[in-house]
Design a protein that fits this description.
This protein is α+β, with helices and mostly antiparallel strands. It has 35 helices and 15 strands. The relative contact order is 0.03.
Length: about 725
């Protein structure tokens, strides 16, 4: 209906029938005089058709009703519109004075402010007069305000004639500021805002911190938008001036305990959520149950119970809370005992921790942990899927109690996939029966050999290698091969081949801690019990590692040199390889073909073989599976080696070969001065070696000795307890 009237007014104004348009306005005014938005809109229509004075007069007719009924804001909106369309009108001037005098009758010096604004002078621009009034009523003496640069201040005086404020800031006393600038630069704050209280009542706040910390927190929350703040916002507000930083943790721990029994402040369940001050008290029971039933995810509910309910003093909530939560847990068990037994067990153990009474538990569920286990199709998978370690340990105890004839086999199966924190519990029970020793040895060997299957078992072996309790069990692994396995595992974790998500970084740190702690003490102890040849072999693994940086490589190799001096030559060779590595184009192309076959054929085929072998059953006795997993480790390491070296490859430039000195892509004719025979060596790239043709890699010890020497020079080389002495006779470039 309003839209129809409005359109009719537009038509009348277009036809210049002003009287009829005014009549409709007056009808609308009779129907609802408080609809100021409508009348402001209509006045714009009138003003656009050059009837601004008539529109202003019609708006003025509405103001007495609004003022009589206390609609001061609406009345002021009308006079602002009147001033906008008739900025030099006597009636408008009178209405401005009337509205602001009544709406702000309790504001200090309101008449003086109106006088200074010159609202009674129609020669002035009346919107400017209104702006002046509004600037002055933004502040009054004694108000607190905030400046972005100078912080909190208090207005000490207002000069109406010079239109200036005098403000005391902490670092800027008696600062004078133009009122218009102040309106733009200052933010008014309530005198009970914590910033204002810091300014004038800091001892009061410090006293609250010691004697009533909850009240201090309430003041803090009131001072933030919507009466809520994150923990970081609370710290920023309180810590540093009210509470010393070194006292914060102790103070906050004490305050958190007090909050648990306060009915006005709600505590967030997760980090970065809000502490909220409520208008009305909400009982602790209501707060707990509201938070709990807002959660839709079962695991979130279980986490809530562990983090909130079990840690909260039972005196702060009633039995009805436990009863409501227990009913929900009972339903969770009933729903999941067959489709998701691991979750049902977690719910059961949580319920049992809340109500440790068998008869009472029967009120909430007809299932206990034994019944859940009996419905589980795969006990190993069920235990391994339980997320909480404490519940996994409870499950181990229950399996031993419920399956007296099978539990040892179940434990052995679990050992192949258990997290490292659970392995102690499993092995401690298994080793009590000597009959289990062969099976246990086999599983540990598989975990040691097949690092891609479960690196947790390898880490457990390394961590407990020198434990007296497990000495006999772990003696077979006390050799340098263990270091190789740890580095292989770290490389695979680092490259993402072992998809363990957030465990990757954690396990890499655990391995590094083992290898490097206490000046590589663990590594040195293993090396002392190992032979030289295996040490040299593992040194190559360290050099090729993708997860060890240069400093770590050097730290390990320094230990290796102590027990195998030949590692020193390996380090020299590595220094040569450190930057670019050279190869002929033909050899490089061949290696690329090998790499493509590895990635596109051999690795995918191996993955299929693993899947087929896994389907054959018991992995402990499945030799096809073991062989396929061992092959997988070799293939993945080979892939990483290719990728590492491909990044450094440079193709030999035969045109750059120089016949003045031995260098890459030169043929060297030498005289063996010991055997008095001539030999020819072609110095070529890393993959170009063909000893039967006299072609050697530039990275070989012999090539490294020859490179840089000129015709007539003699070089001496000792290799594998044999001595060689060559005199260079001739150097010629190799043609491509």
């Amino acid at each position: 209906m309003i839209a129809i009237y409005r359109e009719e007014i537009r038509e009348l104004l277009r036809a210049k029938k002003i009287n009829e348009a005014e009549d409709i306005w007056l009808q609308l005014l009779d129907e609802d005089p408080s609809d100021t938005e409508l009348f402001i809109g209509l006045s714009t229509e009138f003003a656009n058709k050059d009837y601004a004075k008539e529109a202003s007069a019609l708006l003025a007719m509405n103001i007495p009703y609004l003022l009589e009924n206390g609609y001061y804001d609406r009345a002021i909106n009308l006079v602002k519109q009147m001033a906008a369309i008739t900025p030099h009108d006597k009636e408008t001037s009178a209405r401005i004075i009337e509205c602001y005098s009544l709406a702000f009758k309790d504001f200090p010096n309101i008449q003086e402010i109106i006088s200074v604004s010159r609202a009674n002078d129609i020669t002035q621009n009346l919107p400017k007069s209104i702006e002046c009034i509004e600037n002055f009523i933004s502040f009054k003496e004694g108000d607190f305000c905030k400046h972005n640069s100078w912080g909190i201040g208090q207005i000490t005086s207002i000069d109406f004639f010079t239109k200036t404020l005098t403000i005391d800031f902490n670092a800027k006393k008696n600062h004078r500021m133009d009122i218009e600038l102040g309106v733009r630069a200052l933010t008014g704050i309530d005198d009970q805002h914590i910033s204002a209280l810091k300014f004038k009542k800091m001892p009061y706040l410090k006293n609250l911190a010691q004697n009533d910390p909850v009240e201090l927190l309430k003041i803090t929350l009131k001072s933030h938008d919507n009466n809520k703040a994150t923990l970081n916002e609370i710290i920023d507000t309180i810590c540093g001036d009210i509470i010393e930083p070194d006292e914060w943790k102790k103070w906050w721990d004490k305050t958190k305990k007090l909050l648990k029994s306060d009915e006005y402040i709600t505590i967030p369940e997760k980090k970065q959520k809000y502490y909220t001050l409520l208008d009305q008290p909400v009982s602790i029971d209501e707060q707990i149950l509201s938070s709990y039933f807002k959660l839709s995810n079962f695991r979130e509910k279980l986490a809530f119970i562990s983090a909130k309910l079990k840690k909260q003093s039972k005196e702060t909530y009633s039995h009805s809370v436990i009863d409501s939560v227990a009913k929900d847990l009972g339903e969770m068990i009933e729903i999941n005992h067959t489709i998701h037994p691991a979750l049902a067990l977690e719910a059961w153990y949580t319920l049992f921790s809340l109500i440790n009474d068998t008869k009472q538990l029967a009120q909430y569920t007809s299932f206990n942990s034994k019944a859940i286990f009996e419905h589980a199709q795969n006990l190993m998978e069920t235990v391994n899927t339980i997320e909480k370690l404490d519940f996994q340990k409870e499950a181990l105890k229950d399996i031993k109690a419920f399956f007296p004839k099978r539990w040892q086999d179940i434990y052995l199966d679990l050992l192949t996939c258990a997290p490292s924190e659970l392995i102690d519990d499993i092995i401690d029970e298994i080793i009590l029966n000597d009959d289990n020793t062969p099976k246990l040895d086999n599983i540990l060997k598989m975990g040691f050999d097949l690092i891609t299957e479960n690196e947790e078992l390898l880490l457990w072996i390394a961590k407990n290698l020198y434990s007296k309790k497990y000495k006999k069990l772990l003696d077979p692994f006390s050799n340098v091969t263990l270091i190789e396995k740890l580095i292989d595992s770290m490389d695979l974790l680092h490259s993402g081949v072992l998809d363990r998500n957030d465990k990757n970084a954690k396990n890499i740190l655990r391995i590094k801690d083992l290898l490097f702690k206490n000046n590589c003490a663990f590594t040195a102890k293993i090396l002392a019990a190992s032979d030289a040849q295996p040490i040299l072999h593992v040194a190559h693994t360290i050099v090729d590692s993708s997860s060890l940086d240069k400093l770590n490589q050097q730290a390990l190799l320094a230990k290796f040199i102590i027990y195998c001096p030949a590692v020193k030559n390996l380090m020299k060779s590595e220094e040569v390889q450190n930057n670019a590595i050279y190869s002929s184009k033909e050899a490089f192309d061949q290696k690329q073909r090998e790499f493509y076959e590895l990635v596109n054929t051999l690795i995918p085929q191996n993955a299929k073989n693993i899947g087929i072998a896994r389907a054959h059953g018991d992995l402990r006795e499945n030799f096809e599976y073991k062989a396929a997993k061992e092959e997988q480790a070799k293939l993945l390491r080979r892939k990483m080696e290719f990728e590492n070296i491909f990044n450094k490859i440079r193709i030999i430039d035969f045109n750059a070969a120089d016949s003045k000195k031995v260098s890459l892509a030169t043929t060297v004719r030498v005289l063996d001065t010991i055997n008095h025979s001539e030999k020819i060596f072609n110095i070529m790239g890393i993959w170009d070696s063909a000893p039967e043709k006299g072609t050697i890699s530039y990275l070989t010890p012999l090539a490294q000795k020859l490179i840089g020497h000129s015709a007539g020079d003699e070089v001496t080389l000792e290799m594998e307890q044999e001595k060689f002495r060559y005199k260079i006779l001739e150097i010629t470039p190799i043609k491509q």
